[in-house]
Amino acid sequence: MSNLLAVASWKAMFTNTTYAWMGNIFDVISIVLYVIMGLVGAAGAIYAIYLGIQLARAEDQGKREDAKKHLITVFIAVAVTVVLVLFFNNLLPLIVSSFVDIPTEIL
Fold it and tell me: For residue 104, what pLDDT is reported?
């Protein structure tokens, strides 16, 4: 159980193996995923503001319902992106380390 808690990132999983170079690759991928999460969040916020303005300016019920549907879709898309990025960066290394015995040296 202590080994499970020690592996909190992809880099920690590969530090004592001959595949230590993979830890550096996973660090770069992790940073890229956080940047993507930030960009999706910013774009989602800007689009949500635009849809809110469209919702407020809508004169008939059809346009108002359409703007509501798009707004709900934006919130779901941003939430799914955030959850997936956090899952791949934080939770998946813990899951993999619990099922895979990571050797300290490969003969």
Answer: 52
